[in-house]
Design brief:
By secondary structure, this protein is of the alpha/beta class. The protein has ten helices and 15 strands. The chain folds into two domains: about 140 residues, NAD(P)-binding Rossmann-like Domain (Rossmann fold, 3-Layer(aba) Sandwich), CATH 3.40.50.720; about 180 residues, Dihydrodipicolinate Reductase, domain 2. β9 and β10 form a beta hairpin. α5 packs antiparallel against α10 and α8 packs across α10. The model has no long low-confidence stretch (mean pLDDT about 95).
Length: about 350
Protein backbone atom coordinates (compact mmCIF):
# COMPACT_ATOMS: atom_id res chain seq x y z
CA UNK A 1 0.00 0.00 0.00
CA UNK A 2 1.20 3.50 -0.80
CA UNK A 3 1.20 5.84 2.16
CA UNK A 4 -1.90 7.93 2.71
CA UNK A 5 -0.85 11.52 2.07
CA UNK A 6 -1.90 14.04 4.71
CA UNK A 7 -2.31 17.81 4.67
CA UNK A 8 -2.38 19.07 8.26
CA UNK A 9 -4.36 22.22 9.08
CA UNK A 10 -3.40 24.27 12.13
CA UNK A 11 0.21 24.46 13.31
CA UNK A 12 -0.46 24.74 17.03
CA UNK A 13 0.45 22.64 20.05
CA UNK A 14 -1.49 19.45 19.23
CA UNK A 15 -0.10 19.44 15.68
CA UNK A 16 3.27 18.42 17.09
CA UNK A 17 1.82 15.12 18.34
CA UNK A 18 0.31 14.49 14.90
CA UNK A 19 3.46 15.33 12.98
CA UNK A 20 5.63 13.21 15.26
CA UNK A 21 3.19 10.35 14.71
CA UNK A 22 3.37 10.78 10.94
CA UNK A 23 7.14 10.34 11.20
CA UNK A 24 6.55 7.07 13.08
CA UNK A 25 3.87 5.66 10.82
CA UNK A 26 4.58 3.51 7.80
CA UNK A 27 1.03 4.08 6.54
CA UNK A 28 0.76 7.88 6.33
CA UNK A 29 2.95 10.75 5.20
CA UNK A 30 2.49 14.45 5.97
CA UNK A 31 3.11 16.27 2.70
CA UNK A 32 1.62 19.73 3.30
CA UNK A 33 0.73 22.20 6.04
CA UNK A 34 -1.99 24.86 6.18
CA UNK A 35 -1.99 27.79 8.59
CA UNK A 36 -3.11 31.39 8.26
CA UNK A 37 0.23 32.31 9.86
CA UNK A 38 2.53 31.21 7.04
CA UNK A 39 5.69 31.89 9.02
CA UNK A 40 4.56 29.45 11.72
CA UNK A 41 3.71 26.83 9.10
CA UNK A 42 7.08 27.34 7.44
CA UNK A 43 8.81 26.76 10.77
CA UNK A 44 6.96 23.47 11.26
CA UNK A 45 7.66 22.48 7.65
CA UNK A 46 11.38 22.99 8.11
CA UNK A 47 11.37 21.06 11.37
CA UNK A 48 9.56 18.05 9.88
CA UNK A 49 10.88 18.11 6.33
CA UNK A 50 7.54 18.98 4.72
CA UNK A 51 7.75 20.59 1.30
CA UNK A 52 4.44 22.43 0.89
CA UNK A 53 2.96 25.28 2.97
CA UNK A 54 -0.35 27.03 2.25
CA UNK A 55 -2.60 29.63 3.84
CA UNK A 56 -5.92 27.89 3.05
CA UNK A 57 -7.13 24.34 2.38
CA UNK A 58 -8.43 25.45 -1.01
CA UNK A 59 -4.93 26.57 -2.04
CA UNK A 60 -3.51 23.25 -0.83
CA UNK A 61 -6.05 21.15 -2.74
CA UNK A 62 -5.45 23.12 -5.94
CA UNK A 63 -1.65 22.90 -5.84
CA UNK A 64 -0.74 19.68 -4.03
CA UNK A 65 -1.55 15.96 -4.31
CA UNK A 66 -2.82 14.42 -1.08
CA UNK A 67 -5.62 12.18 0.21
CA UNK A 68 -6.79 13.60 3.53
CA UNK A 69 -6.91 16.70 5.68
CA UNK A 70 -5.93 16.47 9.35
CA UNK A 71 -7.66 19.34 11.17
CA UNK A 72 -5.92 20.53 14.35
CA UNK A 73 -7.75 23.79 15.06
CA UNK A 74 -9.49 25.26 18.14
CA UNK A 75 -12.82 23.62 18.93
CA UNK A 76 -15.03 26.46 17.70
CA UNK A 77 -13.45 26.29 14.23
CA UNK A 78 -14.03 22.57 13.67
CA UNK A 79 -17.40 22.81 11.94
CA UNK A 80 -16.49 25.54 9.45
CA UNK A 81 -13.20 23.96 8.44
CA UNK A 82 -14.73 20.47 8.15
CA UNK A 83 -17.40 21.77 5.77
CA UNK A 84 -14.74 23.48 3.64
CA UNK A 85 -12.56 20.38 3.50
CA UNK A 86 -15.46 18.05 2.75
CA UNK A 87 -16.42 20.25 -0.21
CA UNK A 88 -12.90 19.61 -1.57
CA UNK A 89 -13.70 15.87 -1.45
CA UNK A 90 -10.75 14.92 0.73
CA UNK A 91 -10.97 12.48 3.62
CA UNK A 92 -10.84 14.13 7.06
CA UNK A 93 -9.27 13.37 10.42
CA UNK A 94 -10.59 15.93 12.92
CA UNK A 95 -9.28 16.56 16.42
CA UNK A 96 -11.78 15.95 19.20
CA UNK A 97 -14.21 17.22 20.29
CA UNK A 98 -15.92 16.96 16.94
CA UNK A 99 -17.65 20.32 17.52
CA UNK A 100 -19.18 22.31 20.34
CA UNK A 101 -22.78 21.24 19.59
CA UNK A 102 -24.40 18.04 18.41
CA UNK A 103 -26.35 20.02 15.81
CA UNK A 104 -23.06 21.10 14.24
CA UNK A 105 -21.85 17.48 14.29
CA UNK A 106 -24.96 16.34 12.43
CA UNK A 107 -24.37 18.92 9.71
CA UNK A 108 -20.73 17.84 9.39
CA UNK A 109 -21.74 14.19 9.02
CA UNK A 110 -24.26 15.05 6.31
CA UNK A 111 -21.69 17.03 4.37
CA UNK A 112 -19.12 14.21 4.57
CA UNK A 113 -21.68 11.67 3.37
CA UNK A 114 -22.79 13.95 0.53
CA UNK A 115 -19.23 14.21 -0.71
CA UNK A 116 -18.43 10.52 -0.26
CA UNK A 117 -15.50 11.01 2.12
CA UNK A 118 -14.33 9.36 5.35
CA UNK A 119 -14.81 11.52 8.45
CA UNK A 120 -12.79 10.27 11.43
CA UNK A 121 -12.70 11.95 14.84
CA UNK A 122 -9.39 12.08 16.71
CA UNK A 123 -10.44 10.26 19.88
CA UNK A 124 -6.77 9.45 20.17
CA UNK A 125 -6.94 7.85 23.63
CA UNK A 126 -9.11 5.03 22.27
CA UNK A 127 -6.10 3.62 20.42
CA UNK A 128 -3.83 2.56 23.28
CA UNK A 129 -3.37 -1.24 23.61
CA UNK A 130 -4.46 -1.17 27.27
CA UNK A 131 -7.68 0.63 26.35
CA UNK A 132 -8.43 -1.78 23.51
CA UNK A 133 -7.72 -4.78 25.75
CA UNK A 134 -10.03 -3.50 28.49
CA UNK A 135 -12.95 -3.52 26.06
CA UNK A 136 -12.07 -7.04 24.91
CA UNK A 137 -11.93 -8.39 28.47
CA UNK A 138 -14.93 -6.65 29.99
CA UNK A 139 -18.00 -8.28 28.46
CA UNK A 140 -21.15 -6.73 29.91
CA UNK A 141 -20.26 -3.64 31.95
CA UNK A 142 -22.04 -2.87 35.23
CA UNK A 143 -20.27 0.33 36.24
CA UNK A 144 -17.35 2.59 35.37
CA UNK A 145 -15.74 4.99 37.83
CA UNK A 146 -13.42 7.52 36.17
CA UNK A 147 -11.09 9.86 38.04
CA UNK A 148 -8.79 12.57 36.71
CA UNK A 149 -6.92 14.73 39.21
CA UNK A 150 -4.12 17.13 38.42
CA UNK A 151 -2.99 20.72 38.74
CA UNK A 152 -2.99 23.02 35.74
CA UNK A 153 -2.04 26.57 36.65
CA UNK A 154 -2.66 28.31 33.32
CA UNK A 155 -3.90 27.51 29.82
CA UNK A 156 -1.21 26.19 27.46
CA UNK A 157 -2.64 28.17 24.56
CA UNK A 158 -4.64 31.46 24.55
CA UNK A 159 -7.87 30.07 23.12
CA UNK A 160 -8.31 27.81 26.16
CA UNK A 161 -9.12 30.94 28.17
CA UNK A 162 -12.42 31.36 26.31
CA UNK A 163 -15.39 29.19 27.25
CA UNK A 164 -16.94 30.09 23.89
CA UNK A 165 -13.96 28.78 21.92
CA UNK A 166 -13.43 25.62 23.98
CA UNK A 167 -17.12 24.89 24.44
CA UNK A 168 -16.58 24.95 28.22
CA UNK A 169 -13.16 23.82 29.42
CA UNK A 170 -12.53 20.55 31.18
CA UNK A 171 -15.60 18.77 29.85
CA UNK A 172 -14.77 19.17 26.13
CA UNK A 173 -11.00 19.08 26.52
CA UNK A 174 -10.68 15.96 28.68
CA UNK A 175 -14.16 14.82 29.60
CA UNK A 176 -14.80 14.11 25.93
CA UNK A 177 -12.14 11.37 26.07
CA UNK A 178 -13.77 9.86 29.16
CA UNK A 179 -17.24 9.98 27.58
CA UNK A 180 -15.82 8.21 24.54
CA UNK A 181 -14.47 5.39 26.71
CA UNK A 182 -17.64 5.04 28.77
CA UNK A 183 -20.04 4.98 25.81
CA UNK A 184 -17.80 2.46 24.02
CA UNK A 185 -17.65 0.21 27.09
CA UNK A 186 -21.41 0.24 27.69
CA UNK A 187 -22.31 0.05 24.00
CA UNK A 188 -25.30 2.35 24.45
CA UNK A 189 -26.28 5.91 25.30
CA UNK A 190 -27.15 6.76 28.90
CA UNK A 191 -30.77 7.18 29.92
CA UNK A 192 -29.98 9.99 32.37
CA UNK A 193 -27.26 12.63 32.74
CA UNK A 194 -26.49 14.60 35.89
CA UNK A 195 -23.53 16.95 36.27
CA UNK A 196 -22.24 19.66 38.59
CA UNK A 197 -19.24 21.90 37.86
CA UNK A 198 -17.20 24.64 39.47
CA UNK A 199 -14.93 27.38 38.12
CA UNK A 200 -12.12 28.09 40.58
CA UNK A 201 -9.15 29.34 38.54
CA UNK A 202 -9.50 32.86 37.06
CA UNK A 203 -6.93 32.01 34.38
CA UNK A 204 -9.82 30.72 32.23
CA UNK A 205 -13.59 31.11 31.92
CA UNK A 206 -14.70 27.48 31.85
CA UNK A 207 -15.22 24.69 34.36
CA UNK A 208 -12.17 23.20 36.10
CA UNK A 209 -14.01 20.96 38.60
CA UNK A 210 -16.51 18.37 37.33
CA UNK A 211 -18.68 15.65 38.83
CA UNK A 212 -21.03 13.67 36.57
CA UNK A 213 -23.21 10.57 36.80
CA UNK A 214 -24.49 8.82 33.68
CA UNK A 215 -27.33 6.33 34.19
CA UNK A 216 -27.61 3.37 31.81
CA UNK A 217 -30.20 0.64 31.29
CA UNK A 218 -30.73 -1.91 34.04
CA UNK A 219 -29.57 0.40 36.83
CA UNK A 220 -26.00 0.46 35.54
CA UNK A 221 -24.02 3.69 35.82
CA UNK A 222 -20.81 5.59 35.27
CA UNK A 223 -19.47 8.28 37.59
CA UNK A 224 -16.85 10.84 36.61
CA UNK A 225 -14.78 13.16 38.79
CA UNK A 226 -12.29 15.61 37.25
CA UNK A 227 -10.17 18.39 38.75
CA UNK A 228 -7.47 20.72 37.48
CA UNK A 229 -6.93 22.20 40.94
CA UNK A 230 -5.50 19.17 42.75
CA UNK A 231 -1.82 19.28 43.74
CA UNK A 232 -0.12 15.90 43.43
CA UNK A 233 3.50 14.80 43.83
CA UNK A 234 4.36 15.73 40.26
CA UNK A 235 3.43 19.37 40.84
CA UNK A 236 2.06 21.66 38.16
CA UNK A 237 2.50 21.36 34.43
CA UNK A 238 5.46 23.54 33.51
CA UNK A 239 4.45 24.44 29.97
CA UNK A 240 6.76 21.92 28.31
CA UNK A 241 5.88 18.75 26.43
CA UNK A 242 2.60 17.05 27.26
CA UNK A 243 0.13 19.15 29.20
CA UNK A 244 -0.46 16.36 31.66
CA UNK A 245 1.19 12.98 31.82
CA UNK A 246 1.07 10.00 34.14
CA UNK A 247 3.81 11.49 36.33
CA UNK A 248 1.76 14.53 37.35
CA UNK A 249 -1.85 13.31 37.29
CA UNK A 250 -4.01 10.65 38.82
CA UNK A 251 -5.99 9.20 35.91
CA UNK A 252 -7.81 5.93 36.46
CA UNK A 253 -10.89 4.05 35.31
CA UNK A 254 -12.28 1.21 37.44
CA UNK A 255 -14.64 -1.08 35.54
CA UNK A 256 -16.94 -3.65 37.14
CA UNK A 257 -18.14 -6.19 34.59
CA UNK A 258 -19.46 -9.71 34.19
CA UNK A 259 -15.83 -10.81 33.84
CA UNK A 260 -14.60 -9.16 37.02
CA UNK A 261 -12.71 -5.98 37.79
CA UNK A 262 -10.61 -3.96 35.37
CA UNK A 263 -8.38 -1.09 36.46
CA UNK A 264 -7.05 1.13 33.69
CA UNK A 265 -4.19 3.37 34.83
CA UNK A 266 -3.69 6.38 32.57
CA UNK A 267 -3.97 4.70 29.15
CA UNK A 268 -0.96 2.40 29.43
CA UNK A 269 -1.53 0.01 32.33
CA UNK A 270 -4.34 -2.52 32.74
CA UNK A 271 -5.10 -4.94 35.57
CA UNK A 272 -7.74 -7.65 35.34
CA UNK A 273 -8.84 -9.06 38.68
CA UNK A 274 -5.62 -7.79 40.23
CA UNK A 275 -3.31 -9.25 37.57
CA UNK A 276 -1.39 -6.95 35.22
CA UNK A 277 -2.31 -7.83 31.63
CA UNK A 278 -0.92 -4.75 29.84
CA UNK A 279 2.04 -2.62 30.89
CA UNK A 280 2.58 -0.67 27.72
CA UNK A 281 5.95 0.98 27.20
CA UNK A 282 5.70 0.73 23.42
CA UNK A 283 7.29 3.69 21.68
CA UNK A 284 4.52 3.68 19.05
CA UNK A 285 2.24 6.58 19.99
CA UNK A 286 -1.53 6.51 20.15
CA UNK A 287 -1.53 9.23 17.47
CA UNK A 288 0.43 6.90 15.20
CA UNK A 289 -2.10 4.12 15.80
CA UNK A 290 -4.84 6.63 15.07
CA UNK A 291 -3.26 7.49 11.72
CA UNK A 292 -2.97 3.78 10.95
CA UNK A 293 -6.71 3.34 11.57
CA UNK A 294 -7.47 6.25 9.23
CA UNK A 295 -5.33 4.74 6.49
CA UNK A 296 -6.85 1.27 6.96
CA UNK A 297 -10.43 2.58 6.91
CA UNK A 298 -9.80 4.47 3.65
CA UNK A 299 -8.08 1.47 2.05
CA UNK A 300 -10.78 -0.96 3.16
CA UNK A 301 -13.68 1.38 2.31
CA UNK A 302 -15.14 1.09 5.81
CA UNK A 303 -16.04 3.42 8.65
CA UNK A 304 -13.18 4.16 11.05
CA UNK A 305 -13.53 2.99 14.64
CA UNK A 306 -14.10 6.58 15.78
CA UNK A 307 -16.26 7.92 12.97
CA UNK A 308 -18.51 10.96 12.91
CA UNK A 309 -21.36 9.13 14.65
CA UNK A 310 -19.04 8.32 17.57
CA UNK A 311 -17.86 11.92 17.73
CA UNK A 312 -21.42 13.23 17.71
CA UNK A 313 -22.49 10.92 20.56
CA UNK A 314 -19.60 12.17 22.68
CA UNK A 315 -20.56 15.79 22.00
CA UNK A 316 -24.20 15.04 22.83
CA UNK A 317 -23.13 13.88 26.33
CA UNK A 318 -20.77 16.84 26.58
CA UNK A 319 -23.68 19.21 25.85
CA UNK A 320 -25.97 17.39 28.27
CA UNK A 321 -23.42 17.62 31.10
CA UNK A 322 -22.96 21.35 30.58
CA UNK A 323 -26.74 21.89 30.48
CA UNK A 324 -27.30 19.76 33.57
CA UNK A 325 -24.64 21.70 35.47
CA UNK A 326 -26.09 25.05 34.40
CA UNK A 327 -29.61 24.06 35.46
CA UNK A 328 -28.65 21.85 38.46
CA UNK A 329 -30.93 19.01 37.42
CA UNK A 330 -31.01 15.53 35.94
CA UNK A 331 -31.60 15.35 32.18
CA UNK A 332 -33.57 12.49 30.63
CA UNK A 333 -32.92 11.03 27.21
CA UNK A 334 -35.53 11.89 24.59
CA UNK A 335 -35.07 10.08 21.28
CA UNK A 336 -31.73 9.38 19.67
CA UNK A 337 -30.14 12.80 19.89
CA UNK A 338 -31.61 14.85 22.73
CA UNK A 339 -31.55 15.16 26.52
CA UNK A 340 -34.24 17.27 28.22
Amino acid sequence: MEKLKICLIGCGRIALSHLNAAKQSDKVEAVALVDSALDRAASYAERYGIQHVFATPEEAAAACDFDAFDICLPNDLHKGMTLRCAALKKHILLEKPMANTAADCAEMIREAEKNGITLMIGQSRRYYPAVMKSRELAGKVYSVSAELYGYLAAPPTPWWKSAEKTGGLMIPLWGNHIFDYILWMFGEMPETVYCETQHLNPAWEGEDEVMAILGFSGGRYANIRMSWNTHLDGGAWNGEGKILSSKDIHYQRLVLSENGTLILEDETGLKHNGVTVVDDHDEVSNFCRQYDELAASVLEHRRPLTDGAVGMRNVLIQEACLKSAAEHRILLREGEDAYV
